[in-house]
Amino acid sequence: MLPRLSALLHADLAIDLGTAATRVALPGEGVVLEEPSVVAVSRTANRLLSGGCAVGHLARQMLGRTPDSVSVVRPLAGGVITNFHLCEAMLRYFLRKARPLRFGLRPRLLMAAPACLTPVEKHAIYTSAHRAGAGQVMLVGVAQAAALGLRLPVAEPVASMLIDIGAGATEVAVLSLGGVVSQHSCHTGGDQMDQAIVDHLRRSHALRIGLSTAEQLRMELGSAWPIDDQRSTEVCGLDLANGLPRRMEINAAEVRAALAAPLEKILETIRTTLDRCSPDLVSDLVDRGVQLCGGGALLAGVDRWITQRTGLPAHVAAEPLTAVVQGTLTCLEHLDTWRSFVESSDASF
After folding, report:
1. Which of 41, 194, 219, 300 is deepest in the core (most CB within 10 A)?
2. Does the reported pTM lie above 0.85?
């Protein structure tokens, strides 16, 4: 009786704690929160602005437009917590916004985490979540969560492959019979693509632009495969020669050339993952193809580029941004079925 009553009063939450965005889903309701993983901090007082509410969308609006006394930062990089205090404050804000505490009882969290995390980095996630207000904290691998979110037949004796291109990292995994057969990751994603665009404009045109401008260029003109190289847009930045503002036209072909280096790193990760698979599994993948998810999957032509470079049919998921959180929610709702995917800091789990 008491366990059943406790389950009714507690709130179970599925969380995709991403480098660029955090998404929270509730059983029976789906995704209820999706906000940028950023916070605005007063440098002098070392505290969050707006009474602790300068998180997510509000903090993102301040990015690149703050005085010296204010800093807008990401508490995570590549799925790893880089600022323990700020991550805790951000999580606390998101938990309260997604579902207020019921009768003071702490919620149970299932969080998606990269497989490459060290025990110390996992411990940081556990501790941050507990201090943010969680009762029990469990982790599921990003690859397993994405596979469930994409509804791949991971429990069947057939190979399923997915590529999750996030903001700070890319995870590639092959699953079969309910387990991970081969998995590899690299610290290359949307952030590194944006930095590549910034570096290209600095080297080739002596023009300095911000990362937010580079992100906009990637979304508007970026591609992995030639689509329409005549597309162009005007970009404004600082001339490195005289320190004055300057405008210039940049076309899609130039942006694609800037993205070549980070894309090659992702390709190498794909090849490393495939190299660890048996010929029978690779044969399955030739027939079934590869599923792409994450924000990087929205890069124009990336599916065709992967197909041409690997020989495997690549398909972008219908909802690439929410595949991980949807899979985390599926795992949470059917915890007995997918218990092998989950680890917990609670020894009684």
Report:
1. 194
2. yes
Residue 22 pLDDT level (bands cut at 50, 70, 90): very high
Phi, psi of 162 (to 5 degrees): -135, 150
Alpha-carbon distance of 60 to 41, in angstroms, equals 12
Domains and CATH numbers, the chain: 1-34+94-147+322-349 (3.30.420.40), 148-188+261-321 (3.30.420.40), 191-258 (3.90.640.10)
E strand or H helix that includes residue 120: helix 119-132
Question: Does position 64 have pLDDT exceeding 90, yes or no?
Answer: no
Phi, psi of 57 (to 5 degrees): -60, -40
- DSSP letter at 205? H
34-46: pLDDT as tens digits:
999 999 888 776 6
- Cβ count within 10 A of residue 19: 23
Residue 264: CB atoms within 10 A of its CB come to: 12
